[in-house]
Amino acid sequence: xxxxxxxxxxxxxxxxxxxxxxxxxxxxxxxxxxxxxxxxxxxxxxxxxxxxxxxxxxxxxxxxxxxxxxxxxxxxxxxxxxxxxxxxxxxxxxxxxxxxxxxxxxxxxxxxxxxxxxxxxxxxxxxxxxxxxxxxxxxxxxxxxxxxxxxxxxxxxxxxxxxxxxxxxxxxxxxxxxxxxxxxxxxxxxxxxxxxxxxxxxxxxxxxxxxxxxxxxxxxxxxxxxxxxxxxxxxxxxxxxxxxxxxxxxxxxxxxxxxxxxxxxxxxxxxxxxxxxxxxxxxxxxxxxxxxxxxxxxxxxxxxxxxxxxxxxxxxxxxxxxxxxxxxxxxxxxxxxxxxxxxxxxxxxxxxxxxxxxxxxxxxxxxxxxxxxxxxxxxxxxxxxxxxxxxxxxxxxxxxxxxxxxxx
Length: 408
Ligand code: AMP
Hints:
The protein folds into 2 domains: about 5-170, Phosphoglycerate kinase, N-terminal domain (Rossmann fold, 3-Layer(aba) Sandwich), CATH 3.40.50; about 180-385, Rossmann fold (3-Layer(aba) Sandwich). It contains 14 helices and 17 strands. It has helices spanning about 35-50, 75-85, 100-105, 135-140, 160-165, 175-190, 205-215, 225-235, 250-260, 300-310, 330-340, 355-360, 375-380, 390, and strands spanning about 15-20, 25, 30, 55, 90, 110-115, 145-150, 170, 195-200, 220, 260-265, 265-270, 280-285, 295, 315-320, 345-350, 370. Strands 5-6-4-1-7-8 form a 6-stranded parallel sheet, with helices on both faces. Strands 11-10-9-15-16-17 form a 6-stranded parallel sheet, sandwiched between helices. Strand 15, helix 11 and strand 16 form a beta-alpha-beta unit. The relative contact order is 0.13. Adenosine monophosphate binds near residues 201, 205, 225, 323 and 325.
């Protein structure tokens, strides 16, 4: 990565603006998964050890009306962070103004402050999400340097990432650096064989990813809802399975381009209803009845995928292989977790989103080389697109040792 990292900045005694992604799931004000807060700890702890004044901010949910504010306050995230750090985190419940400015000006080295949800600014003309120039300038005026550790929003140009970075010396935090190293490394410089596993609901969400991975991966194993559009374009009956009719020509084109690289399911778990307790059966890919829909991959598909994964050195996975939210249709996704958890000689990377949630929920959190914290961001990175939140950060200064030493 040619961007500065947090270790390239001098932060002692400085007001460090740290954009984190604390967009954590909450129920009635209680955080149900603090993974994103935990993942931000290395950067926060480093800045504190280096005697910085750490000013944190994040978005949380979407803010369309005043009524969205209370349930999307970051106060519970500040409280959780305080528990994890074992030190006070001063929470300031506004996004601008004298109260915030005074609180920042009174900070001592090694203290942490967090201000309110950046998207509260969206109530006034989507200032945060549209990267309002004045808002970015104002937030930048609150600090001396800027660190972006919010990988989950790196694919968006918002005032709280791109806006601020245009005014201050800036760097990537450890989490952003780690995400880029693992996902970027896997796609651009993979140890081979490199196998990608793609699932999830729709082909349309992942066209860019499939196209990019067709150029890079040795095999692409496809499951989940998106498999049916591919199966239909090959002439198979898919019953009432999810299918994007308008993407049939594209699916055909991708299969032609793939020249055998794409592997589709050979059997499926089908049902007449989309529900948790629906009766279901396993059937061959060519035997789906008109009133049946495929909701998971079958056991022979798992065996086939396991065979294709054997010996792989790099595996990137995005999208569950079935409707994992229903126990009856979660076996494909669970089996992939199980297979990948045993591949100790491979780099195994989950590209965020629902497959990350499924792996964590199923207890495989520690068994992967990397589970991305960003769904949309990791998808765009897998597509090979630049991430505006990263692009806006300061470049590393060239080494002055005078040779091609690879210092950076
Ligand atoms: P995505 O966000 O694109 O990764 O899609 C995740 C969603 O795809 C999950 O909510 C799954 O329930 C859903 N999904 C996976 N397989 C199927 C399927 N065969 N039919 C319908 N939805 C599916």
